[in-house]
Amino acid sequence: MGQHESPEERAVKLSCRNLWKVYGPRPQYYFDTSGYQIDRDALADRMRSEVHVPAAIDVSFDVHVGEIFVIMGLSGSGKSTVVRCLSRLVDASYGEVLLDGENLLAKSDRELIDIRRHKMGMVFQNFGLLPHLTVLENVAFPLKLQGMPLAEQLEHAQRVIKLVDLEGRESSFPGQLSGGQQQRVGIARSLAVEPDVWFLDEPFSALDPLIRRQMQDEFLRIQKMMHKSIVFITHDFLEALRIADRMAIMRDGKVVQIGTPEDLILNPADDYVAQFTSEVPRIRVMRAEACVVPPEGDIGDLPHVPGAMVAEALITELVRSPKGVVVDGADGGVLGVVTPASLMKTLAASSGEV
């Protein structure tokens, strides 16, 4: 992986293709008779008129190796339905879910169990810990299901317990732990199998704000070391902003827009996305490369910053260097300079104030 390689340039690990999940008495009828030949909105409207509920409608996206892909939306938008279809906790009505090019929807129950035990990690809002098992036993439990020898189970479990900073609590039971500690055990258990893909469905939403932020930091620390391919579900845009490489916003079962947090905030596809992102300060997503102006005079003494630096961090740099900073591109070339005036002008323009 190159030093400046973006998630989109990496190999695709997981693909979701034209995924539908329809609840009702005969959902398969629509795909057997109509195939995929009519407009998705018309098909969804027809389903609703015939007492069916399309919970996921023609959902498509890719998750790249090492990418944190966030799916977000309001309650009932379909985001949790999609992640359950990806892991086949519920069966999709139509479409494909490709893991390393193999369609999970075509796998037998036995094959799927093996895939879940060896290639998938799952963490949910409900920690799902076994109350009669210790921390060590809870973390080792999926390894026991794999049939791993006991000594190896404990060795692997101890390693991930250290990873989530729970050393010293191995003999504790879940009821003796705080909410944040319980969630760490859930994360450790999901990582014990060394999964290829990691599904997290609102894992921190039950925690109070301070612990939630600490768990986000912990999550990012673990990801920096392990480089997992992750699908992360949330309804909190500020949480998504902290962790996402790319994100999809869903509404009424459909994906409305996919892009980086910066893309969605600065170039919303419609009013719904704009409203979703309206409370996010532009200064937290605007990057230095978007604020550059041509240099005037000698720039030899000015400090250099990367083009990916966010405007929030630029303020500190401009306090130290009021004349401006030189902005370097991913290839090392100079893109231009950012001055206090150019930063303020760009931020004002992005918010529609000039």
The total count of helices amounts to 13
What order do the strands of the largest sheet run in, or round the barrel if closed? 6-7-8-3-9-10
Query: SSE order in H/E notation?
Result: EHHEEHEEHEHHHEHEHEEHHEHEEH
pLDDT averaged residue by residue? 87
Radius of gyration: 23 Å
Tell me the total number of β-strands: 13
For the terminal residues, how far apart are their CA atoms? 40 Å
The general outline is globular
Low-pLDDT runs? none
Percent range of helical residues? 25-40%
Alpha-beta content class: alpha/beta
Can you put this structure into words, describing what you see?
The protein has 354 residues and is α/β, with parallel strands linked by helices. 38% of the residues lie in helices and 22% in strands. The protein has 13 helices and 13 strands. The strands form 3 sheets. It has a 6-stranded mixed β-sheet, with helices on both faces. Strands 2-1-4-5 form a 4-stranded antiparallel β-sheet, with helices on both faces. Helix 7 runs parallel beside helix 8 (209-226). It is globular. The mean pLDDT is 87.
